[in-house]
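Hi team,

Below is the intake form for DUF4159 domain-containing protein from Polaribacter pectinis. Please confirm the fields before the structure is written into the shared record.

FORM ID: S-0412
PROTEIN: DUF4159 domain-containing protein
ORGANISM: Polaribacter pectinis
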Amino acid sequence: MKQILFLLFTCLFLNTNAQDVAILKYNGGGDWYSNPTAIPNLVEFANTNIKTSISKNPQTVTVGSEEIFNFPLVFMTGHGNVFFSDDEATNLRNYLISGGFLHISDNYGLDKFIRKELKKVFPKLELKEIPSNHAIYNQTFKFPNGLPKIHEHDKKAAQGFGLFYEGRLIVFYDFETDLSDGWEDEIIHNNPKSVREKALKMGANIIEYAFKN
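The structure came back. Fields below:
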């Protein structure tokens, strides 16, 4: 039965031709809904600069829903606790191995929770730091030094981590930088234009990479 469901979900994903993204809603009490202007601003930037045609009103999908298979890319952020049930972990795993992509942006405080929950999804996979020569840093916009630093948290370098499944990057996790804060309306964090531009360009690279791979 599980194999049949997986095949059905895979067909659903592969047959969708929508060039859209979604925001991931999860349980555990963390504020999955934080940074509400981030994705709309990133979508506008991507549509203008890398010629995507993403809906300007991103939908929300839950971890365990069938609807997640309608989107080639889902975004996740927050400051607090994350919890995936066994069924949700299985659903997310099926989504990712059938072609989906997850971008996680640590909004400060997410790290210890998301690492634990990702182990439910892929018990045998380890988050690996992604080298600066990886394709995700070298799409339309080039980041020769890897992940740009957007927000200061603990005076640590920005790091981009990934989960790889059969050689394909399926999860990109930005840590100690908070890309999604850099995508928000300028008035919210008062980031200089140059900082917001770096964040948006890196976000556009993530979209471009996910859509191509």
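SUMMARY LINE: Helices lie at 2-15, 38-49, 86-97, 111-121, 179-183, 186-189, 193-212.

Thanks, M.
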